[in-house]
Amino acid sequence: MAQKSFTVSGTIKDQSGSFLPDVRISIGRNVVISDSLGHYIISVPSKKGQLTISFSHKYFGEKTVDIDSVAVQDTIIDVVYERVERPLEEIIVRARKGDPTAFQKIDKQQILNSPLPSSNFESFLKTLPGVSVNNELSSQYSVRGGNFDENLLYLNDIEISRPSFIRSGQQEGLSYINPELVSRANFSAGGFEPRYGDKLSSLLDVKYLRPDSSQTTASVGLLGYSLAYKAANPSNFILFGIRNKSNEGLLKTQDVKGSYRPNFYDLQFLFDQNLGSRLSLSFFANYNLANFELIPQNRQSVFGTAAKQMQLDIAFGGKEFDKFETLLGGLTAQYRISSNLNVKWVNSLFRNQENENTGIQGSYNLRDAGFQTSSSEEEGRVGIYYNFASNHLNAVIAASELKFYKEMKHWFMEWGLKCQKASIKENIDEFDYIDSVKADSSFEITPRFRIAALNSINTKQFSAYWQSSFAISSKFDFTGGFRANYNSYSRQLLLSPRLTVLVKPGVDRLGFRVSTGVYDQPPFYREFRSTSGILDKNVKSQRSFHFFTSMEKGFDIYKKPMKFSSELYFKYLKNLIPYKIEDLRIQYQPGLQSHGYATGIDLNLRGEFVEGLESSFRISLMKTAEDIEGDFYYKNNSSNFQEKVEPGYLKRPTDQRLNFSAFFQDRLLNSPTYKVHLNLLYGSGLPVGAPGQERYKESFQIPTYRRADVGFSKDLLDRGIEERVELKRHLFSSFILYAEVFNLLNINNTASFLWLTDVSGNQYAVPNYLTARQLNFKIIAKIK
Question: Does the domain made of 5-81 have the CATH classification 3.30.420.40?
Answer without folding.
Answer: no
